[in-house]
Every structure is written in structure tokens, then in C-alpha cells.
Design goal:
Strand content: 15-25%
Bound molecules: zinc ion
Number of strands: 15
Strand order of the largest sheet: 1-2-3-4-5-6-7
Helix content: 25-40%
Distance between the termini: 40 Å
Number of helices: 10
Shape: globular
Structural class: alpha/beta
């Protein structure tokens, strides 16, 4: 169950019941003092059991550790309150750390209501309780030590530098160990599945463009071991980055091709016109939560097309309308 992937770097899966992701890969870096644990799993009994069991196999209790949160999602932060309550230091970026506490307090979920209207999916009857992120969020707000890109966290023989990985979430961070060429990338690079890139509000600008820039910056780093949080280990992280960038470029052109010249669309009308890996015959067959995730994913792409001048956006009474103005996606990323 527990595997040593590198000297004093261990990993074990924590189960995520009801999630298509199935599990999250937890990383633990052992030290004579406090071990460093990366991310947690959902606030759910099954996740909690596998976390405690994994730590136990390493001879650790929750209170023997510090916790590093790569990003706000509940499958990464759900059990953070268990660590905080045991007296552990909990590290996160300010942006995502504040959101984690706003998730616990409930305030964070107001954004969802605004987005339903922006995307034109209010009539799809999507509720916050359809969202596993809401159901399995951490139980209460906690004290977080905010870290910034460039900060160093020493554990054992390692000097981990906090890396700016914004894109999958606005404040996603990771850890880079330059002497050993290690990267803990969270959900930024995943094998076999593409990390969800969604819309977080206009204040974060072109988040898909931000994500691709993050990937290309990582591509330029000298990394030998890339540790990601879902699915199998990545053997060639540069190849995987190239595949992810190509996927999004194809998706952008697919969206442009799906929009008729001179026609105006809301997000709800664009999403069903593009391909999804989910098994559903039509938009109406999408489970409610997937309608929301698909709309967010479509929106991040369409918003990028607004930034590249391919699409024009208009906000009328809180709903966004889009029109194609240039049918070819021409931005050169490489
Ligand atoms: Zn995530």
C-alpha cells in the first residue's frame, strides 16, 4: 500500500468514494522531526480511515506531521481540520487557503449561484448539494500558515521551494526540490486525465492561458521525478505537458468550429456542441454536477478565446453571450 518512491519520499492512495477520480495519491516526506504530508482526501469516513492507516504504516500519527495543501479542492483539503485540530502546522497559498476556510463557512459557495446565471444554466436545476466539493469539504475553518512562491520548507535532507502553479485553481502551489530534481505538482499535471480548468471570476482573467503558461514554465525546469495527485506516476513529464497543451489547443479550435458565423450563444448552448469523455447521450443526460463542471470548463476556454480576439463577449442582465469573430485559433505557444 505504501510505496517509497525516492529516499524518504513515500506515497499511498486515499480513497475518494463516489468520485470518478477514485483516489488521491498522498505524499509523505519523512523527517526526524515532523514529517510533511501533502494533501488529504475528502472529509469522509473512508478517506479518513485510509489516511490514518497510511500514516500508521509509516509509523506516524497525525500529530507527528505538518500538512501542505496544494490547492483548495475538497479532495485535497477535506481532512485539513483533522490535522489542524491535532496541532499540526497547515501550509497553503493565501488565495486558496482563504477559499478553503470560506468553503467551510459556506460563503465560497455563493459563487456557484452567480456562475449558473452567467453560463445560462439556471434552469438546469443544479444545486450546491450535487457538488462533492461541497458535501465533503472540511468541517470548520482552521489556522493556516500562508506560503508564497519562493518560500523554502525544509524537511529532512530536502529544501522544498514553493512553486507557483496557478491555473487548475487560482492559488495552486507545488513543491520543487532543485538539488534532487523533484516536483510535487498537485493536480497541475495528471496522467491519462486532463485536469479540470474552470472559470473562477473575471478577476482571475484568462485562467486557461495562465494554466498553459504554468505548464510551459514547468517544462523549462530540470525535473527528473514528477509526483502528481491522481492516477499513475508520470514518467516523462515534458511529453505529458505537450499532450495537455495540445489537448487544450484542439479544444479551442473545436469550440470555434462549433459556433456558427454570426450566431450568438450562451455557455449552455456551446457545451453540448463539443465532445466530452463522459458517457451521456445528450446534455439532458449529464448528471447535474457534470453539467456544472462542463460549463465551467467550456467557459474557461471561451474566455481564453475572448482574450485572443477570436470571440466577443457581452453581459446582458447577468448572462454572458458569445459571438465568433475570428474562426481560426492562431496563438503560438511553442
Ligand atoms: Zn483539484
Amino acid at each position: 500500500m505504501v510505496t517509497e518512491l525516492y529516499k524518504n519520499v513515500y506515497s499511498f492512495p486515499v480513497v475518494l468514494p463516489d468520485s470518478p477520480l477514485k483516489a488521491i495519491n498522498i505524499y509523505v516526506i519523512k523527517d526526524k522531526e515532523k514529517a510533511l504530508v501533502l494533501d488529504t482526501g475528502y472529509n469522509m469516513e473512508e478517506s479518513k480511515e485510509s489516511m490514518i492507516q497510511g500514516l500508521k504504516e509509516l509509523g506516524l500519527k497525525v500529530e507527528d506531521t505538518s500538512l501542505f495543501l496544494t490547492h483548495l479542492h475538497s479532495d485535497h483539503t477535506g481532512l485539513a481540520a483533522m490535522f489542524a485540530d491535532a496541532g499540526c502546522d497547515v501550509y497553503a497559498s493565501k488565495l486558496d487557503g482563504e477559499s478553503v476556510n470560506n468553503m467551510a463557512k459556506g460563503k465560497y459557495w455563493n459563487l456557484m449561484g452567480e456562475l449558473l446565471q452567467l453560463f445560462g444554466i439556471s434552469e438546469d436545476e443544479i444545486n450546491v448539494t450535487d457538488n462533492p466539493g461541497y458535501l465533503y469539504r472540511l468541517s470548520h475553518a482552521i489556522d493556516i500558515k500562508y506560503v508564497e512562491p519562493g518560500d523554502i520548507i525544509k524537511t529532512g535532507d530536502y529544501e522544498f521551494e514553493v512553486a507557483d502553479l496557478k491555473g487548475h485553481t487560482p492559488g495552486h502551489i507545488g513543491l520543487i526540490e532543485k538539488n534532487h530534481k523533484l516536483l510535487f505538482c498537485g493536480d497541475t499535471i495528471l496522467n491519462r486525465i486532463t485536469p479540470n480548468i474552470t472559470f473562477w471570476g473575471f478577476e482571475y482573467g484568462d485562467i486557461l492561458g495562465t494554466y498553459i503558461s504554468t505548464l510551459l514554465r514547468l517544462r523549462g525546469e530540470d525535473i527528473e521525478h514528477c509526483f502528481s495527485t491522481h492516477r499513475s506516476m508520470i514518467t516523462d513529464y515534458r511529453k505529458r505537458i505537450d499532450e495537455l497543451v495540445a489537448h487544450h489547443i484542439d479544444r479551442l479550435q473545436e469550440i470555434l468550429d462549433a459556433m456558427e458565423e454570426g450566431e450568438e450563444y450562451v455557455i449552455r448552448e456551446i457545451s453540448p456542441r463539443i465532445s466530452w469523455r463522459i458517457k451521456a447521450d445528450s446534455w439532458d443526460d449529464f448528471p447535474a454536477a457534470q453539467k456544472f463542471f462542463a460549463s465551467g470548463e467550456t467557459m474557461s476556454h471561451v474566455e481564453h478565446l475572448v482574450f485572443t480576439g477570436n470571440v466577443k463577449r457581452e453581459n446582458r442582465n447577468g448572462t454572458l453571450y458569445f459571438k465568433k469573430v475570428n474562426p481560426k485559433y492562431e496563438k503560438e505557444w511553442f
